[in-house]
Amino acid sequence: MNIKHRKLLPQDNAAMAELIRYNLKANGLDIPGTVYFDEIIYHLTDFYDERPEKRVYFVLTDDEDRVLGGIGLAEFPDIDGCAELQKLYLADEVKGRGLGYALIDLLEKEALEMGYSKMYLETHTNLQTAIHVYEKAGYIEIPRPESVMHGTMNKFYLKNL
Known about the structure:
The protein is an alpha+beta fold. It has helices at 13-26, 44-50, 99-113, 128-136; strands at 4-7, 56-61, 67-75, 82-90, 118-123, 140-141, 155-160.
């Protein structure tokens, strides 16, 4: 299987929403205070296309253009020069291949090109594999910022780019 990345397209919205909800449910996070209940996951292009100079979302696809994962960034107003790494999810069939690291690297390069100097993210202790990936990618745990959107999230990280 040949895996490539590209920017999110409107026809990808439903597949990404399904992938996000599947992963959250599989990790016991299909609960209030997570993105699981956010209507925006069904319309990701609306959010990311609204400010393309400050936001972007990439998807991973196979030879048949099936969506196998995604990752995004948007401005994080609590910290100067900071973007938030958002919605990194992969299909089970491609986990364990280093694609999470590749997506993070792609996103960090894009963030630098957009003028960001830091990257923030929030996650949950249920997502131990994600935490391992983030820490191995150089993210350092920080105290909870004041404006956390998803109240159930309980782990917060920052990286200087």
